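Appendix B. Raw example, untouched.
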Amino acid sequence: MNLKPVAGLDGRLHDETRRQLLEAAGEVFATAGFRNATVREICRRAGANLAAVNYHFGDKERLYAEVLHYAHQQAFKKYPLLPGVGTDASPADKLHAFVRSFLLRIFDAGPTAWFGKMMLREMIEPTEALDSLLEERMRPMANQLRGMVTEILGCPPNDERTRLCSLSIVSQCVFYHHCRRVVARLFPEQPLDATAVDKLADHITRFSLAAMKNLPDPQRAKSRPASSAHGRH
């Protein structure tokens, strides 16, 4: 008897169940966070029995790590870090592409959005997966942004201004996700979904570029009062 077709079918069923668990878990983790998510709810959404998570992933922690990896692949496959921007593009154009892509990953739906939302949750409620997430996913993004900011400011990568400006740019992006309910109540005319991405990306980029252009050198700022005081004497 030829058992190969049966084995192939079993393999496909195994892969399909695993995929369904990943997608169900992505929805639950992105919405409820790691701590509030339950294996029971994940299995219910996936149409799988409660033993399926242990069978395919080992435990909830490993499932969470796998979802992060899967969601990252899906998100950056659809929205690359710098879409449509060549290596010879200006730092300002690169920054705009970076911000726009960041916002798209936050506001999009489905697997694309899971990674952005899970990353944002990790910033507020870190899990044991944070260290590997930082090294494998977030640090490369941070380094790329820091490189753009370094070019714009014209100062060394390790300069405090580079670090603070990079953090300010990301803060503007995540604000529209974390505070969307408050913003919606204060400014109901402000759309906070995928339709708003282009305008928000334009604003955040222009605002950040203007701020960096007029950012004073802290060393000069420190020396100014002393010079002025000396002049008065």
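End of appendix B.
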